[in-house]
Amino acid sequence: MTEDSYRHQKVTLHTDSSEFSNLPQLASAIRSPDKNIHIPAFKSILDIVINEPKSIDALYENDIVNVLNKQIGSEDEEDAYVLSSTILHAIGVRSKVVDSDILACSATESLIRIIHSSNEKQSKAGSKALCELVEENETIRNSLLTTGFIQVVIHTLTSGQQALNRSLSSSQSISDSPSFVKVGLLDVILRLVTAAEVLQPLAILIPLLEELKKNGEDQLKIKARKILGQLSSEGIIYSQTSSVGNEKENDYKIKELEDLNREKDQQLQHQEEKTKLKLR
């Protein structure tokens, strides 16, 4: 494809995006081996999804969703990944969902991802925004308590040990979630504890919070102590009998966190010994 023909096609893909009759053309474009036309095609598809709510069925008919899923799985090209995930999110929002908690999950999903950003300023902004939503919206509170947010928190709080296990088996570098991410998630949990009516789903966090209160970093200790205090005042306790389905997984997560803290202590002790030897 010549540069002039590519430029012409790029313009055509964008200017026709107000109508979804050209979706077959766009579907062919995103499958093309010529990666130069992928981005303008993805942008046109996004415009169509946003501006033409009736286009959703046509996206499935042209197998565009399947191509988007493959882009999500690769993450090789950042722009294509961002556009593909945005399109899929927009499709999900456009889809008719009757469950209000699932619908609210679409609103919180992006904020949860922002909290996990490696950019501390962005992460804190995401946490602040989600805390405000929790304070203002009962449906958001119910959604976070019932659609997987608690499992995300467990995963992130124990991410250091998971990364350590992977590194030991694959010789890769250790990658742990930054402390400000964990603090931001605990801020949301604290806001849930003070604003939600049904708190029992949070009981599964109690063993992890107890471990953080004893061995976590200073800010994590403070947050864990406050959350545990609120849960205790509301009569919420961790019961193995009421958490049979999650018992083994949660105990494993606790052990991971304990092992991680032990590993960090050993590393610090080793570092101190090396420093003493150098000073001799």
Care to describe what's here?
With 280 residues, the protein is an all-alpha fold. It has a domain at 8-96. It is built from 15 helices and no strands. The protein has helices spanning 3-15, 23-31, 38-51, 56-61, 64-74, 78-94, 100-115, 120-136, 138-146, 149-157, 159-170, 179-195, 206-215, 218-233, 244-279. Helix 3 (38-51) runs parallel beside helix 6, helix 13 (206-215) packs across helix 14 (218-233) and helix 13 (206-215) runs parallel beside helix 15. The longest helix has 36 residues, at 244-279. The N and C termini lie far apart (69 Å). Mean pLDDT is 80; it is low at 1-18 and 163-168.
Descriptive labels:
15 helices, mainly alpha, ARM-type_fold, globular, ARM-like, 280 residues
Helix share bin: over 70%
Strand element count:
0
**Number of H/I helices:** 15
The unreliable regions are: 1-18, 163-168
Order of helices and strands: HHHHHHHHHHHHHHH
Derived structural class = mainly alpha
Global mean pLDDT? 80
Globular, elongated, flat, extended or rod-shaped: what is the shape? globular
Q: How would you sum up the major sheet?
A: none
